[in-house]
Amino acid sequence: MTENSTNPFEPRYAPGKTTVCVMGLGYIGLPTASVLATKGFQVHGVDVRPDVVDTINQGKIHIEEPDLDILVRSAVNSGQLKAGKTPQPADIFMICVPTPIRPDRSPDLSYVKQAGQALKPYIKPGNLVILESTSPPRTTEDIVLQEAIPANLTVGRDVFVAHCPERVLPGRILFEVVQNDRVVGGITPECTARAKQFYESFVKGEVLATNALAAEVTKLVENSYRDVNIAFANELSILADRLGIDAWEVIELANRHPRVNILTPGPGVGGHCISVDPWFLVHAAPDITPLMRTAREVNNSKPHYLVEHIERLARPFASPVIGCLGIAYKADVDDIRESPSLEIVQMLAERNVGQILVCDPFVPHSKFSELPLLPLGEVLERSQILVLLTDHRPFREIPRRFLQEKVVVDTRGAWR
Ligand code: SAJ
Question: What is the distance in A from the centroid of ligand 1 to the CA of 286?
């Protein structure tokens, strides 16, 4: 597609005529690339890992996500999706790479930088470059624009740069990538308009237009809001323990008030989003964000509180056997990134609290090899203390008679 071939009455970007190059084929990039491909866009996916590129080109997947295997297989078989180690010329470039935090909680934007630098030789007039990675304020302008756009091209006239943060929930990605409302913000109004038109060609939700900075901050605010709300729930659960009441019951009752909506306490907050994103806002303005910082600290301290609680329960046993159910960061996923459940298991093992038996039917041995992953039946039979860390469906459905003889720690309120 060239600029001057565009009929003003036809959408500029459309399946069948627009080519898309997706940088990063992980939890966001691969589902996005395969959805675009099955809608009829010609998609070239790029990943720095040769094994990922090979797997995808065989029509297979390297991550767990419901129905993603079917979609990728069909996208690759139809020839609409191909993967490679380097970019190719395209109409649209999408950056879907990780944006982690460093140990000092400052944002690590090296992957965005590298993706931008890799794109630069392929950028030509008329291109649209979209940053989808969740990013600190001003990343689109300070990093993407600086690294990817050649100096002889004017943004908003020759090339177009926008941010459209991904908003999908792991476990429901394929549904949400199409159905959710999206926020798009360009560096200029023309950048915004073009990005909006592109998303409207495959998204069923509403595409809401703003500028790049507001789009960046909106995404961070969404996840920070949840982090603060969960921190409130976690603090309440510790207070409830001291008062000898059931935190989940109190929250359920309070939530019957028409204007109260408290989230659920748990072992802490994991995953690569909610436990990371608030730091981007705190880092941007540390002197005026005490609430968000404290929420992070409250949620990060919950695993320590629970380990001390389990230690106390283990003390009366001569040689305690502690069954830990779940190491994934949340129910029914295989993802152990930033998982508080995993952190609790590791702390219990380090402190020699007892014999630690671990079960997680979702997590493969390749992702966790510190301790053996045992069958549920064996853990139920051998444990004296049973700790529910991740509320996977098989754990929620354990018949209560198996719990009767045990000391039970239910960090998720799933066995109440
Ligand atoms: N959690 C609680 N209590 C709750 C809800 C969650 O303790 O009431 C814990 C979970 O167990 C988990 C963590 O918080 O450890 C995060 O889980 P989550 O399901 O809330 O969120 P993620 O990280 O899987 O996905 C989030 C989503 N953000 C929002 O719901 C605002 C998703 O829409 C984002 O796209 C994604 O982060 C992202 O990439 O930012």
Answer: 23
In the chain, CATH 3.40.50.720 covers 19-205, 221-410
Q: How far is the CA of 84 from the centre of ligand 1 (A)?
A: 31
Three-class SS state of 157? coil
**What are the pLDDT digits (tens) for 289-330?**
999 999 999 999 999 999 999 999 999 999 999 999 999 999
Ligand 1 first shell, C-beta below 6 A: 134, 166-170, 222-223, 226, 230, 263-264, 266, 269-271, 273-274, 329-330
User: Which atom of ligand 1 approaches the CA of 299 most closely?
Assistant: 7
Q: Which fold has domain 19-205?
A: Rossmann fold (3.40.50)
Burial annotation 27-44 (CB, 10 A radius, 16+ → b, else e): bbbbbbbbbbbbbbbbbb
- Work out the average pLDDT over 58-65: 92
Which atom of ligand 1 is nearest the CA belonging to 171?
24
User: With respect to CATH, is domain 221-410 assigned 3.20.20.80?
Assistant: no
Name the strands in the sheet holding 321-325, side by side, starting at the edge strand that comes first in the sequence.
Answer: 355-359, 321-325, 385-388, 407-410
pTM of the complete model = 0.93
